């Protein structure tokens, strides 16, 4: 006979997911200003809410993750740069460390145009089931597009930092990193999704990086080539 405690103990490992469940904090710096800008009666009234020259620029280097060793995605959007509220556009600086990557993710509310400034970064994009992978080497001043909702990722191939500018047609594009998202689901269900009930999900999911700064360190091939 199993007591409820024994049953619970037996079930527990399958209920606990292995990826970190750290909830990212809101990035919104002035929520009341966002609300006021959204509800201003006219463009004139809206302008009065942004009276200073300082309300009209955003400095990427001032962001706390600008010098993160893995690199970072730094968003100038409604959350961080309130003048963008209601403008339907935002921009991000992508800083990729040597061999750095942006792990697989999608933007639920925006199409994304990415322009390389420095480096050589390979991008991978899958638009929907059946259409196949599109792979682009983003060399300086080359642009690629990730349509709204498409799965995409990228890796800096170089041993130097790569800089890219990412434009999005929403002031609140959102980002979903698919591996931490998938690993928040219970293990038996993930195993079924992989088509292998014996898959060692726990080992597989143990080291999925947190969303963190948005950028992570890339492939072993690149790291060994660059002596990292
Ligand atoms: C960019 O990197 C890829 C992958 O290493 C390489 O095949 C390609 O030749 C590089 N492009 C340039 C212009 O260096």
TrEMBL record:
Q: Where, subcellularly, is it found?
A: Secreted
Keyword Kinase on this protein? Answer: no
Coiled-coil spans in chain: none
Tell me where it mainly resides.
secreted
Sorted alphabetically, the keyword list is:
Manganese, Metal-binding, Secreted, Signal
One Gene Ontology cellular component annotation held by this UniProt entry: extracellular region
- Kindly indicate whether the keyword Signal belongs to this entry: yes
List the Gene3D superfamilies.
Answer: Jelly Rolls
MF-aspect GO terms: manganese ion binding
Q: Which residues form the Cupin type-1 domain?
A: 64-202
Top-rank taxon, per record: Eukaryota
The residue range of the signal peptide is 1-21
Family indicated by similarity: Belongs to the germin family.
Q: Which PANTHER family match?
A: GERMIN-LIKE PROTEIN SUBFAMILY 3 MEMBER 3
Can you name this protein? RmlC-like cupin
**Organism encoding this protein:** Decorospora gaudefroyi
């Amino acid at each position: 006979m199993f007591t409820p405690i024994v049953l619970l103990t037996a079930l527990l490992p399958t209920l606990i997911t292995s990826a970190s469940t750290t909830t990212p904090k809101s990035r919104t710096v002035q929520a009341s200003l966002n609300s006021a800008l959204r509800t201003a009666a006219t463009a004139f009234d809206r302008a009065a809410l942004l009276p200073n020259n300082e309300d009209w620029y955003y400095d990427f280097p001032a962001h706390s993750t600008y010098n993160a060793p893995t690199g970072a995605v730094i968003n100038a959007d409604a959350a961080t740069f309130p003048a963008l509220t209601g403008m339907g556009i935002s921009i991000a600086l992508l800083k990729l460390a040597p061999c750095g990557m942006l792990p697989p993710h999608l933007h639920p509310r925006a199409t994304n145009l990415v322009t390389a400034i420095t480096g050589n970064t390979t991008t991978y994009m899958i638009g929907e089931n059946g259409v196949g992978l599109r792979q682009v080497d983003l060399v300086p001043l080359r642009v690629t597009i990730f349509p709204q909702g498409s799965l995409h990722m990228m890796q800096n191939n170089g041993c130097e930092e790569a800089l890219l500018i990412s434009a999005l047609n929403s002031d609140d594009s959102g980002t979903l990193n698919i591996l931490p998202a998938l690993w928040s689901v219970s293990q038996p269900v993930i195993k079924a999704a992989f088509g292998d009930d014996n898959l060692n999900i726990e080992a597989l999911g143990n080291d999925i990086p947190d969303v963190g700064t948005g950028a992570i360190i890339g492939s072993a091939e690149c790291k060994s080539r660059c002596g990292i």
